[in-house]
Write a structure and sequence with these properties.
Helix content is 30%, strand content 22%. The longest helix is centred in the first third of the chain and has 17 residues. The two termini are 34 Å apart. Strands 15-12-14-13-17-18-16-19 form an eight-stranded antiparallel β-sheet. Strands 5-6-10-8-9 form a five-stranded antiparallel β-sheet. A four-stranded mixed β-sheet has the order 1-2-4-3, covered by helices on one side. It is built from 13 helices and 19 strands.
Length: 459
Amino acid sequence: MNSERGLVLEVRSALSAACPSLRDGDPADAVGGLTPSFVASPASTHEAAALLRAAASSGLAVVPRGAGTGLGWGLAPSACDLVVDVRGMDQVIEHAAGDLVARVQAGATFGHVASVLAKAGQELALDVPADATIGGIVATGTTGPRRLRYGSPRDLLIGVTAVRADGVVAHAGGKVVKNVAGYDIGKLLAGSQGTLALITEATFRLHPLPEAVAYVTAEFGPEQRGAAAAALQSAAGSALVPSAVELDWPPGSPQSPRALRVGVLLEGTSSGVAERARRMSELLASAGGSPAVAVAEAAPPRWGQLPSPSTVIRVTFWVGTLAGVLDAVAAAGAGAGVRPAVTGSAGAGALYACLDPGTEHDTAVRFVRALRDRLDSGASGGPASAARPASAARPASAARPASAAFGGPRGSVAVLAAPAPVMEGAGAYGPVPGSALMKAIKDQFDPDHRMFPGRLAAL
């Protein structure tokens, strides 16, 4: 017992020497039910590097943390000895307004960064919570409706500074948009969920704030899924340059089914947006189903929001297969006895099916398995590896038709958030075609698998 206590004191001493802002972990710091022994808050990349070197010498499992808004999503870590809280690194280091570039520390909140950039009439074109940290946004790949036009964090990232598990500092990219030197490690770290390295700084390309915006919405009846899908595909592939094309399909009830809403965001100059909104209204109305079309300056209800954070299933697909995907969701729900709320950037090939918090665990598992069976098999068999991720989805005009090579809709089904029994019973990701490559990359960056171990199923 004395030797164990001495070892703990030795580890604490090494960590505190590297990062003075160190404390013991408590239940409020738990990640996936695991309470860390220590929580450290480095104030710089230099401190973070020294901290991870000390952690490596003691073989500690490390979990990076920003605001914690995404820690509850995905698989829980298999071990958690040290939580590295990056919120002490919270500065906008450089804003080159003339170059539309900003370099930001990982702990800065999106809201703070947005306020700084707005003074120059610019923005980081992401739709994320104001309290989310920049490092967390990049690590989780968090995005929103405008991903259709601007892409995800990895598409806006032009440079990154990160600390490997062994404490070595790595720099990639630069401070100019057209920098092409070296390997694009930033895009590798984006969406890695903190399993490869600790992000400490990020450099982004920016966009001017739009002068005007317009939301064009079309409401389709419950039995007009095909017409809604056709309208959405036409909007996403149109020359009117939509910034977002969203689908909202509330669950309703058998006695009172809910309509489907197609929403389109247009941004630009006042005169240009007004004309594009008029033409977009005509385009949506011509899709069939006689939808009710409206134009407004304010976002419609539930825009960019998840109906429920309890059980969230993400479906990614070729945009041209949307009608079949909606049919698959409806059929899987009917078979399991649930009516999920469906929302998301369907124009970019991504939807979220959310189950009511009161849904029985076995019922949720049945729904996920049924949906995965329908979309993984494409209704007539074949591997799921051909499904295109949402971050790479093509416009509807170029989307592969549902019957192009498969007998039905195809897509990838991932459980992003769910009670532990659902996550265990349904599996978080299903088949992962690139698992061998992912493991090889993990072995290169983190040979001992100490960075957020167990977070990704393939690792």
